[in-house]
Structure formats: C-alpha cells, structure tokens
Amino acid sequence: MTRVNRRDFLKLNAALAAGAALSAASSAHPKEWSQAGKPNILVFVFDAMSARHLSLYGYPRRTTPNLERFAERASVYHRHYAAGNFTTPGTASMLTGMYPWTHRAFNYRGMVARDLVKRNIFHSIGSEYTRLAFTQNLWADILLSQFGEDLDFHVPCDAYSRFAHSALQPDDLPGDRTMAYYALQDFLNLRVEDSNPFPGSLLLASRDLAQAIAEETDSHPADHPRGLPTNHDFSYDHISVFAGLEQLVEDNLRSSSPTLGYFHLWSPHEPYNARKEFVGLFGHVEIPAKPRHPLSGGSYSEDDLYKFRLAYDEFIADVDAEFGKLITRLEQAGVLENSYVVVTSDHGELFERGEYGHASALMYAPVTHIPLMIAAPGQSTRKDYRSVTVNIDLVPTLLQVAGSEVPDWVEGKPLPGFGGTEDSSRSVFPLGAKDNAAFRPIEHATFAMIKDN
Predict the structure, then answer these.
(1) How many whole angstroms separate alpha carbon 372 and alpha carbon 286?
(2) Res 202: pLDDT
C-alpha cells in the first residue's frame, strides 16, 4: 500500500491538478481512460443520508433534483436498508457483506473482528484492481485502516479540508492510523463535542483550543451563515471536496488497470451547515407528529425537530447540487463510459418520536432506509426495484460486475438487475447493539425486522 501524509498528499494533488489541466488543454480523448476489460467501480457514500428525505423517493421537498437526473439512467432501489443505525455497523456491513453480529463492528469507534479483517471488498476484488479509498468520517477510516493491506491508496481524511481543529491527525502517524486515532482523537486531543471533554494532554488541548478560537472567523465565512461544514476534527467546503474527488478519480482512471474507488463523504451528517443559497430554500410542509418513544435518547419538541429537519433538507440540497456538477464533469471527461457508479449511504437520520439524529436505540425507517442507485456503463434508461434489499448485498453485487468470485462467507445476495432477483419473501435485520462488548455474546440490542411492506 502507498502511504502519504496529508501535507505531502496536498502537494502531490496540486501537482497532479496542474498536470491534468495541461493534459486537458491538449484535447484528452475518452479512450485514455482504463479499457482493461474490467469496469471501473466508483462508490459514493453520503453519510447520514436518509432515503425518506430525498425527493427522488417521493419526499415533498425538492431536495435532490440532481440525484433524480442521475437516476434516469440508473437502477434505483426503493426499499434498501442499512444493517445498522450509525456509521460503524452501517459501513462495516457495506464493506464486508456481513451483518453486524458476524463482523462485530457494532460499537462506537468499533472495529471488525481481527480474524475477519480479510473479509472485505478490497481484498476480495483482488490486486487486479487499483483500490482507492477516501473518507471524511474518522470512524469509517478506522475500518479502512483495518483493511489497509488491501488498499493501494488510502487518502488522508482531511485531504480536501479548509483547516484541521487538532494539531495532530491520525494520518500524521501513518504506521498505524487506527491506533493513532484512538491515541490522538480519543485521548490526547480536545474533543469538545463529546460528553466528556477532558483531554489526555493539557498542552495539546490548549493548543487546539487556541487554534479553534483563532479560526472562529474563518469557520463562518459569508457564504456559510451557519458555519462551514465540519466533522468536528476539521472543516471543509463542498466545492473543494468535490473538486478534489473529481481530480482523484480522473488521475487514477488514467492507469492501465481498472479502479475500485470508495469515497465516503461526511455531508449531509450534522451539523447541517448549508451554503447561503440553500438556506431558506424550502417552504413549510406538514409533518405528522409522533409520540416520544420510551427508548428515545432525546426529548425534543416537535418545533425543535421541525427546525432540525429543515436544516437537514437544506444541507441535502447543497450536497446534491455539487454531486450533480461532479457527475456532469466526469461524464464530459469520458470517465463514465467504462465505470459503474454507486450512490448510497451508511445510515439515515431521524426527526421523530422525540429523537434527533441517529445511533440511539431506535431503528425506525428514517434511520435505516437508505438510498441506493447504480449506474452501469452505457446505461441510458431507468430501472426501479421495489423488493427489500440490505447493504450487505453491495459486496456480492460489485464482485459480480467485476467478474470476481463471491466468497462463501458473504451473507448478502447479488442485487436484482445484477445477478440477483426480486424476492418478496426475504427478511432483513438491521441491528443496534452499541452497548455490548464486541467479543462477547450480544445481550442487549434492538432490531428492525423488515419483510415486504
């Protein structure tokens, strides 16, 4: 695996951008893209994007006009579910093809069981592919770091950020990014959004706090009235992130081997910091009130939940706009002629029953029902599938389209339209078990059991 720290990566990316611009000026032709017989596979994961909030799936606010345009030449899955209700189990299931009770990554900041680490999409698709991964979510990066031996390029989390809030980031210690995360983000640095904001290092925390105060003005530019999007470790803007992804894709697809790219963005995860042009975009919609659930982790009023929902919808529209531009540019560059493009999420978001967000004990559809669209090379018409599917189905599906063998340990099934068939009798089981030890039997959990309607 090629390892670079984020400072070297940014310098390298700037050089690549200049080279790519020169290449474009000399009229690059789509035939330059990889035509090695196997297709490229590009997976875009939008963190905490609930299918129930996308106009693509019938939501009354027009949150996703660009995803709707993309869907006109894609396979659209209407009843697709995450295997968990927050990043760790949702992402681990998507990358391993196994349910959380099998891979055991169901705790906050959790990891896949060590004896199962080789059971991942990057290892299974093999070295015939150039395997590239980038995420802005540090919990997802723990999993990518576990799979590091099966990655050819593991891009730093803050590669396209405006500024980092901590002096040290995990990719500054590339020898073991997972341990670096636990040492730096979980212990030494200041984590003001955590319930226990006491850092392990007074020196580093004081430095981080001083930096945060100094950057307060920069983090609230005029075009972001609620502040820049942030994952609390670094801040970024959508234009820079999507421009970086475009360059990353184009540079890698110029190689002779096919590429598997996994791109896991933080947006539209909270805080919902949409740009100025999207704030106030939507009018009032009537949302049926639902009584607070006894297992809810919050007690928010209906007015509070409505305000959160509105800000979330605006943030989705912001992300959708930039994704639309990215797809247009990749199409114009010829990238999509030999590429499968997957759009999905790791989990959804909940604004009902007194609950806001995700990762509580509640497993209702808004937090488990996620989008899934797959555009195949040359596809020009839309195909809709309405049987129940789950995100452990992504691994066998991608292995099928890559012409790779599907291992017998995979618990998912190939998706309808890609080797699988619609099955109205199938049941799927999203799991919430974050309060259990990963290495002991699960004793306290909530399930959603989903079959047909």
Answers:
(1) 26
(2) 74
* CA proximity to 278, closest of 348, 202, 226: 226
User: Among residues 426, 433, 445, which one has the least CA distance to residue 79?
Assistant: 426
Residue 350 has pLDDT above 80, yes or no: yes
For 21-41, what is each residue's pLDDT tens digit?
333 333 333 344 444 589 999
Answer yes or no: are the C-beta atoms of 48 and 269 closer than 8 Å.
Answer: yes
Query: What residue ranges in 60-157 does DSSP mark as E strands?
Result: 75-81, 130-135, 153-154
End-to-end CA distance of the chain: 45
Residue 300, pLDDT score: 92
> What integer pLDDT is reported at residue 217 of this predicted model?
62
This prediction has a pTM of: 0.90
The residues, any chain, with a CB within 8 Å of residue 288's CB and separated by 6 or more, are none
Rounded to an integer, the average pLDDT of 307-333 is 97
Distance CA 184, CA 5 (A): 16
Say how far apart CA 155 and CA 157 lie, in whole Å.
6
Is the pLDDT at 224 greater than 90? The verdict is yes
DSSP string covering 310-378 = HHHHHHHHHHHHHHHHHHHHHHHTTGGGGEEEEEE-S---EEETTEEESSSS---HHHHB--EEEEPTT
Beta strands 40-46 and 259-265 are parallel
Residue 133: φ, ψ to 5°? -140, 140
